[in-house]
């Protein structure tokens, strides 16, 4: 794993990018230098699109891929003994710093941050027009988004426990300097405030539209603010930015379109999608962490049967069961496979799809939860938002009438169903201060078969492993980088 603070400026950052609304074709140009690639608005557009392209790295490959990490660490998945046994250390919570950590999230996130910072450091090279103001806003949105990915994984979440806010945060990198050796001297509160500062600048200065679902705009930045404020326990602001999103992008993904969202047939309810559109240049097999096509579907992990049953309420059809899951044999054994990232409509290339970075459905759930936890709760609005989402997932559907604790639990339950296999579950349990309690079901279609395959099946809320280990390779190159307690 290369250390992100020692990368070469010329070999890892500078890009020429050709853009369209379908994809960004990113090609490295190792012969250019900073002055030659920062002389026009079009070059800054290309550099910023290159930063978006780098965001995809956290979803690449099969070991520690962010599309599976939050589910394999939690209770949504069951190890398939006929798979390649990838992510076993994450599944067993046996990861540590010396073995490379649980994921490449740390270095990959900072790599994307370095690209955003290169853009920001060079803004003074040309006149600061409205175009360039928007470029600055996009770059700060990327920087804030990727620091947040690191923050929730490697530090405590403010709502996790009573000591979280004053515990150790992360390095917040605001300049492009391959030789810096940052320390972790900021608290969690300091780090979250810096994320918010970048996102607020972006929200106040970014364009309403930026010409592609693959770029941040005002609504998708508001959605990210809604997410981060929920993690901070700032429910008033979570509501403010959530309602902005709901007003300007109200669709949670219509039931009739829902399955097509995951095959890139449509973008209904998607606020930001990391484009993986050109098989010749991108070809990032983001879905390989779940399964491969090998004389059928060979899954690394299957849906935990306990969760599978929740998609099958008696007499009711849940469209997510069709969009997320497929029951099929592999090597003569039937399994409930996860197909959320299996293939794109019209493509024969497996596991290459766009990454849905944030969707309106999550904003509905975030905002409903925030209304219930607000200093002045609004259960009526929370129920209304929850019913809008449920109305597009279930058929037939009778609007719910829950109140109080039952309503809050219904929001949590719907969150698990809606955002399963989407980089959410472990972080949600973490921010709620809840343990992981896995079922005893096996991987087969009916929950039979070999059990969890882990030395432990429960992770208590006080366990140090909720904070992932900083890779030892990073610490070796930067002695200022403190390891998390327990490793």
From TrEMBL:
Keywords: Cell outer membrane, Membrane, Signal. InterPro entries: SusD-like_N, SusD_RagB_dom, TPR-like_helical_dom_sf. The keyword Secreted does not apply. Residues 317-487 form the RagB/SusD domain. It is found in: Cell outer membrane. It comes from the Bacteria. The keyword Membrane applies. Gene3D superfamilies: 1.25.40.390, 1.25.40.900, 2.20.20.130. Residues 40-230 form the SusD-like N-terminal domain. Pfam families: SusD-like_3, SusD_RagB. SUPFAM superfamilies: TPR-like. Residues 1-23 form the signal peptide. Belongs to the SusD family. This is RagB/SusD family nutrient uptake outer membrane protein.
């Amino acid at each position: 794993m290369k250390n992100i603070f020692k990368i070469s400026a010329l070999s890892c950052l500078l890009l020429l990018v050709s853009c369209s609304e379908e994809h960004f074709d990113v090609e490295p140009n190792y012969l250019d230098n900073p002055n030659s690639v920062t002389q026009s608005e079009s070059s800054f557009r290309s550099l910023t699109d290159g930063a978006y392209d780098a965001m995809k790295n956290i979803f690449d490959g099969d070991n520690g891929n962010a599309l599976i990490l939050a589910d394999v660490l939690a209770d949504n998945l069951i190890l398939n003994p006929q798979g390649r046994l990838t992510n076993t250390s994450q599944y067993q919570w046996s990861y540590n710093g010396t073995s490379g950590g649980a994921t490449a999230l740390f270095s990959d996130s900072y790599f994307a941050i370095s690209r955003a910072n290169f853009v920001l450091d060079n803004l003074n090279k040309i006149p600061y027009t409205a175009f360039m103001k928007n470029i600055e806003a996009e770059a700060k949105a990327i920087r804030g988004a990727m620091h947040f990915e690191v923050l929730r994984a490697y530090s405590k979440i403010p709502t996790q426990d009573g000591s979280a806010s004053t515990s150790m945060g992360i390095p917040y990198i605001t300049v492009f300097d391959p030789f810096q050796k940052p320390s972790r001297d900021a608290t969690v509160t300091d780090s979250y405030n810096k994320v918010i500062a970048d996102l607020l600048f972006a929200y106040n200065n970014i364009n309403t539209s930026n010409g592609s679902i693959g770029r941040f705009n005002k609504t998708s930045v508001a959605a990210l603010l809604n997410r981060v404020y929920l993690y901070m326990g700032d429910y008033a602001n979570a509501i403010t930015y959530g309602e902005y999103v709901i007003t300007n992008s109200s669709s949670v993904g219509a039931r009739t379109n829902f399955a097509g969202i995951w095959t890139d047939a449509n973008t209904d309810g998607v606020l930001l999608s990391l484009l993986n559109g050109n098989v010749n240049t991108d070809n990032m097999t983001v879905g390989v962490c779940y399964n491969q096509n090998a004389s059928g579907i060979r899954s690394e992990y299957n849906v935990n049967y306990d969760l599978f049953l929740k998609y099958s309420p008696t007499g009711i059809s849940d469209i997510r069961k069709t969009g997320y899951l497929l029951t099929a044999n592999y090597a003569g054994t039937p399994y409930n496979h996860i197909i959320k990232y299996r293939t794109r409509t019209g493509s024969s290339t497996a596991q290459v799809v766009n990454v849905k970075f944030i969707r309106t459905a999550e904003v509905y759930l975030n905002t409903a939860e925030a209304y219930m936890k607000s200093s002045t709760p609004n259960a009526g609005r929370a129920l209304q938002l929850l019913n809008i989402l449920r109305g597009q997932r279930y058929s037939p559907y009778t609007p719910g009438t829950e109140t109080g604790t039952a309503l809050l639990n219904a929001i949590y339950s719907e969150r698990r169903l809606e955002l399963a296999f989407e980089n959410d579950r472990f972080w949600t349990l973490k921010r709620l201060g809840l343990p992981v309690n896995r079922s005893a079901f096996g991987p087969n279609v009916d929950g039979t078969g070999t059990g969890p395959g882990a030395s432990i099946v429960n992770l208590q809320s006080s366990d140090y492993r909720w904070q992932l280990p900083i890779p030892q390779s990073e610490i070796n190159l930067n002695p200022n980088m403190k390891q998390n307690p327990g490793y």
